[in-house]
Specification:
By secondary structure, the chain is mainly β. The protein has no helices and three strands. A hairpin with a 5-residue loop joins strand 1 and strand 2. It starts with 13 loop residues before the first strand and ends in a 13-residue tail after the last strand. This is YD repeat-containing protein.
Length: 42
């Protein structure tokens, strides 16, 4: 017999910088090395 459980939906909030790169996810900042497209930290 299968059981089910309800999980609240996780809502993610994103902001972007002037170069259209991800700047924050749920208030956690991303940093970049210069003009690189890939984040140096996440």
């Amino acid at each position: 017999m299968a059981s089910s459980r309800r999980c609240p939906r996780v809502k993610q909030n994103y902001t972007y910088d002037g170069l259209d790169r991800l700047a924050t996810r749920n208030s956690a900042p991303f940093t970049y090395a210069g003009l690189e497209k890939e984040p140096a930290t996440d």
